[in-house]
User: What shape does this take?
Amino acid sequence: MLKQLKLAVMGGTFDPIHYGHLVTAEAARCGFNLDKVVFVPSGRPPHKREKNITPAEDRFGMTTLAVATNPFFEVSRVEIDRPGFSYAIDTVTAFFDYYGNSIELFFITGADAILEILTWKHVDRLMEKCHFIAATRPGFHLNDINNLPEQFVEKIIFMEVPALAISSTDIRRRVEENRPIKYLLPESVEEYIYRHHLYR
Ligand code: ATP
Ligand code: MG
Assistant: This one.
């Protein structure tokens, strides 16, 4: 029998992508022997609908620059090219439609995202289709996960990652206020932000 490809989806708005995302994805790759991590920039995040989000092509471009130096990382346009709000269930279904049963699928989230999982569309179907990896993130407590239904909690895999108190919100604010963002994200992404006058 052919070996199943172990593939992970790293979902996010990536506005912009930063070292918190990259460290988390790499920790999951090594920790769970993943063959590849696919970064999936959200087309239209349903949970950020009232917010001003940078055009998808800029977020896709920055994500592509950020993963360029890791041969195990890829970026997918699947959510950007799909009209309407971006739901993880549609993305995961698209991966299985493409790969068939030749893959074992993981979905990587940070602690804040996993705590909101009940608000995700068709969460029970989603949990059946892939393994959820919940990474530690400064400011959020994975213990709070015990407030979720037990059948979900027992399926979630916990992962400790080096604590990086970095968020895209903070990076956007820093740019707006002319404060440094150096060392919070890859230099190529920093250059992209300044060259395209993002977050001004
Ligand atoms: P924003 O502040 O705009 O919400 P963000 O920094 O939270 O941006 P997202 O694109 O919302 O980034 O997050 C994508 C995924 O990465 C989520 O699952 C989130 O929990 C996780 N993540 C983001 N930053 C970190 C971090 N510093 N450590 C661990 N996980 C993180
Ligand atoms: Mg976020």
Observations:
- Residues 19-31 form the longest helix (13 residues).
- The mean pLDDT is 96.
- The chain has eight helices and six strands.
- Residues 66 and 160 are 22 Å apart (CA to CA).
